[in-house]
Structure formats: C-alpha cells, structure tokens
Design a protein that fits this description.
Strand order of the largest sheet: 1-2
Radius of gyration: 31 Å
Structural class: mainly alpha
Helix content: over 70%
Number of strands: 2
C-alpha cells in the first residue's frame, strides 16, 4: 500500500473526527516503520491537532527523524490554535528556517484569542529577523483584524501602507477585511473610499459598510446603503439594528426587527441581544416579553440555552422593574457568568432592594466567581439606595484589599452620594480631596451639590457649584440646582445672579420627560407640555393625584422657582 492510500484514510479520519480509527492507523505505522515517512507523520500531526489531541500531535512531531518545514508549521499552527502561545513561540525560535506560514500561524492565533498587541509584535519581529519575507493576504487579514480589535487606526494605516508598498495584490477578501477594520476604528470615510473602489462587492462588503456607518453614528447613511442592497442576510439586518439600538434609537431598531421577521430572515443570538437591549433602555416591558416569547418558540435553534440571550433577558427585566422574572430566569440558568451575576445585583440595587443585592453578592462569592468593577458599582448603589453607610464603606475598602480592584471615580461618586444623603458632608468632602484627580470629576461634585441642596449646606454648595460650573460651563442643570439652593435659603441676590448668568450664556435646561407603554405604543410627556392629544385626561389625573396628596397631609414647597433636574 502506498502513502497516498494511507493519506486518504487519515483524511477520512479527520473529516469524521474518528480518533479511535486514527489511533489504529498510527499503531500500524509504528509497526511497519511508516512513521519514518515525514509525509505520513505530518498527516498524523494534522489529524491529532484537528481532533484536539495536541499531546499526541506533539509526540508524533517529536518522533519524526527528519522534520521538514511543513512539520514545524503544522505543530506551531496547532499550538497557536489552542492558545498555547509559550509553546508555539518556543517552537518558532527552535525552527531552523521559519517562513511566512510559520509567522502567520502565530500572528493569526494570537489575534483570534484576543492577544492583539502580541500579534502585531510578532509581525514586527518577523520584519526585523526575516527582512526577505514579504507577507501575503492571509497575514494582512490577521493583522488588520488585530488593529480593528485594538481600535488603533494609526497602526492600521501603517499595516495597510506596508501592504501597498510591498505590492500586495488586492482582492475581495483583503478589501473586505480592510473595509471592516477601518469601520471598527470609526473611520467610515476611509471604509467608503475602499468600498467605492472595489471592482467586485459581495454581501460581506455591503454589510461591512453598513456596520462602518453605524459605528460612526451615521445612521441615515447606514440605512440608505442598506436599502440599496440586493441581497440581505441575518448579519446585514443585525448590523443595522445594532447601530440604531446602540445610538439611542431603540424604537427604530425594534421597527427594523419587525421588518426582518416579516421578511423571513431568521434572527441570530446577537440580533436578540440588540433588540432586548433596546427594550431595556426604553423600559418597553410588553415588547420585551413578546421577544422573549419569540425566543422560546425558536426551540429549533436552541437559543434559550444561549448565555448571551439569557443575560440580555435578565438585564431587560431588571431595567423594567420585573425582578421576579429576572430572578426566575437567573435561577434557571445552567451556566452563569459574571455578567449574569452583575445584572441581577445591579437590578436589585436600582429597584430599591439593596439587601437582596448584597445577598446575591455573597452567593456569587460562594460559587467562586470573582467580582469586577461593575459588581462593586451595583453593590455601592444598593447601599446608597438603602442608606447603608457602614456597609458601603466596608465594600469600598473590601474592593481593593480583598480583590485587588482599585476603586474608580464612579465608585467614589456613589460613595459621596451615600455619605451626602446621610448628612455626612464633611466626610464626603474629605473623600473628594483624598481621591486622585477627584477634584476634576463631575460625578463626585454633582453628588455633593445634590446633598448640599437636601441638607441646606450653603458653604459646601457654593464651593461645589463653583467647581462644577468650571468643569461644565454649558450644563444648565447645575445653574438651576444652585439657583434653587439660594432660593430655598432666601438668598435672592445670589439667586438672581445665577439666573442672570444663565440668560447671558443663553442656557436652557432641557425639558424633563417621562413615558409609559400602553398596548405596544410608547406615550411620551414633556414638562410644561400643553398640546398632547390626551392632555385633558392627563391633567384630570394629575389634579386627582394632587387632591389625594393634600388629603394625606402633604404640604408643597414653594421655595424653588426653577424646575429641578429629575
């Protein structure tokens, strides 16, 4: 029997991933001394690596008496694919004459596993050590992918420029990779320049350009291009839906999703996470439940076991105040990651259930999940909403001492809010002074100013306002709050001065608004609005509510003359 016959048998083992049959062939080769054939040994290395048996692959490689370049490249590629980069680097260093395939395997593997800087460093090393090597399209696609993940447009331009200088012939795969990479770096104009010069375009080209416009928040351009597409697939629709959802235009994202379903295009897991995010941000619980039902009915795709969809559902229910539904989903999950725990911890905190938030944190620690910065934001919010000052201080201390996480400005802002709400204003001020660059953080001073308004501390209020007006000279809300603090204290000269400053700067506070969802329709109401189609009914309801408040003994405060921030 010749080598070609055995090679075809190994190919069948690779196709069927039949490890037992491969072992039998390997045993036969050892008995008949066929392992001395570099060609067959290379095929065995390839078989073992594709069957996820890396140790067996290395043993075959190690036992080859005469290794050729292909032997080295297969084993380096195998280690890189498995993310075993120390071993892959070691083999590359030992390889007598590494070639472009050797380096590209490592570059591609590093980029695929998220080690993008290391991927680019290997490329730089290749250029230094092997100046005669000219990289090809495979290398370029891997490199631009790493640049895109790093969001490094300057590095991307350098790699692109090097490819042009080396005379690398362009093709649709390379153009698509460049188009996508520039889009992910928010360079939509460069993406369009590549797109417009492409002699041939496929659905990937069009989809990448739509995504590039969406990434740059140029949603009208994205929609216009999407409308021109002759062929649209799930990825195309999802790119546009994600663009609208991530740019605060959730209603349009949901409308596009409805069109997608009507046209018979099957949504992907990412599509569902995008539309659930839109429902969460708009607090559209009825629409979110409809999508949840659609996911349950899509049992053929097994979406309901997808952790990303489950996390999106939990987040949606939490943001819509449906903590019971969120908890039921959470408890039913077979696998929970840090996002699952954080969603529930933060959800309880935001819905006024601080104690439950702390309980779930303890459960998370017991399961061995390590908390991150988001976890502690949720915990501190829980303490803030329930007035647990001592617990909040303990958690802030625990964060760095036990978990090695240095608190960020957002954590301190919540802690300052907690101290301020409990009239511990001097401690809050000391915390701002203690924090590195705390004096430049808007959130901290904003929390302190809000607390000063509640407790009538004029000295700290004035100091906080001075800092905030310097940091945010165009934020009308800060002026309104300071005006009301002065008005509440009867200091009308200072109040009129603040009012005059607002007029000089032509600052107007954006009208507050609220909305409700009734039968899948969102009704939005702005403060001082007079022209809503059902305004008469709205005001009748408000008057009834005010009457109930008076009956309960409520006395309104007339000391504020400008509308406060919500």
């Amino acid at each position: 029997m010749n080598s070609e016959y055995y090679s075809s048998l190994i190919s069948k083992c690779i196709t069927t991933r039949h490890l037992k049959l491969g072992h039998l062939l390997h045993s036969h080769f050892i008995k008949t001394a066929l392992t001395f054939s570099t060609f067959l040994a290379n095929r065995l290395i390839e078989f073992y690596s594709k069957c996820d048996s890396i140790q067996s692959a290395y043993k075959v490689f190690h036992d080859i008496p005469i290794k050729n370049t292909h032997s080295w490249n297969i084993i380096i590629s195998a280690y890189a694919r498995f993310g075993l980069f120390d071993e892959a680097h070691h083999l590359l260093d030992k390889m007598p004459e590494p070639n472009l395939v050797s380096y590209t395997s490592l570059i591609s593997g590093l980029g695929h596993h998220g080690f993008c800087k290391e991927s680019l460093n290997v490329f730089k090393s290749m250029l230094k050590q092997c100046s005669n090597l000219i990289f090809n399209g495979f290398t370029l696609v891997s490199l631009v992918g790493s640049c895109a993940r790093l969001c490094a447009p300057e590095l991307l331009r350098q790699v692109h420029g090097a490819a042009v200088i080396m005379g690398l012939n362009s093709n649709i795969i390379i153009d698509n990779a460049l188009l996508d990479a520039y889009g992910k770096c928010s360079k939509a104009n460069v993406s369009f320049s590549i797109f417009s010069r492409m002699p041939e375009r496929d659905v990937v080209s069009w989809t990448s350009m739509v995504a590039a416009y969406a990434q740059a928040s140029r949603l009208e351009d994205a929609y216009r291009l999407f409308s021109q597409m002759q062929e649209k697939n799930t990825v195309s629709w999802t790119a546009l839906i994600a663009g609208f959802a991530q740019n605060g235009r959730g209603n349009e994202a949901l409308h596009l999703f409805e069109q997608m379903v009507e046209e018979g295009i099957p949504p992907s897991a990412f599509t569902f996470t995008c539309v659930l995010s839109a429902c969460a941000n708009l607090a559209l619980i009825a629409r979110g439940k409809q999508i949840h039902g659609y996911i349950i009915r899509s049992t053929s795709r097994n979406y309901f076991c997808n952790i990303f969809i489950l996390n999106a559902l939990i987040d949606m229910y939490c943001k819509c105040g449906q903590m019971r539904s969120a908890t039921m989903l959470f408890e039913g999950m077979h696998e929970k990651d840090i996002v699952s725990w954080n969603s529930l911890i933060t959800g309880f905190a935001q819905n006024g259930h601080g104690e439950e938030s702390l309980v779930f944190f303890e459960r998370m620690i017991e399961t061995g999940i390590k908390p991150n910065h988001v976890t502690f934001l949720g915990l501190l919010s829980a303490c803030c909403h329930t007035g647990l000052v001592s617990e909040g201080l303990r958690i802030l201390d625990l964060m760095e001492k036990d978990y090695g996480l240095r608190p960020r400005s957002d954590h301190y802002a919540i802690m300052i809010d907690l101290l301020g709400r409990n009239n511990r204003l001097e401690e809050a001020m000391c915390l701002i002074k203690r924090v590195s660059k705390g004096s430049d953080h808007v959130g901290m001073w904003g929390a302190l100013l809000g607390a000063c308004r509640i407790h009538g501390n004029m000295d700290l209020a004035r100091k906080s306002a001075e800092v905030l007006l310097e940091l945010e000279p165009g934020n009308a809300g800060r002026y309104v709050m300071l005006y009301n603090i002065y008005a509440a204290a009867g200091r009308w000269d200072e109040a009129r001065q603040v009012r005059r400053l607002m007029m000089e700067k032509d600052l107007r506070k954006e009208a507050a608004c609220s909305w409700i969802e009734v039968k899948n329709t969102r009704y939005q109401f702005f403060a001082t609005e007079r022209f809503h189609c059902r305004m008469k009914e709205v005001y009748e309801m408000i008057h009834n509510m005010v009457d109930h408040l008076y009956d309960s003994g409520y006395l309104p405060c007339h000391s504020s003359f400008l509308p406060e921030e919500d």
